[in-house]
Amino acid sequence: MRLLEERIQTDGIVREGNVLKVDSFLNHQMDIKLFREIGKEFKRLFANEEITKILTIEASGIGIACIVAEFFDVPVVFAKKSKSKNIAGAVYTSKVESFTHNKVYDVIVSKKFLTKEDKVLLIDDFLANGNALKGLIEIVKSAGAELIGAGIVIEKGFQKGGADLRAQGVHLESLAIVDSMDDVTGKINFREQ
Question: Which protein family is it in (predicted)?
Answer without folding.
Answer: Belongs to the purine/pyrimidine phosphoribosyltransferase family. Xpt subfamily.
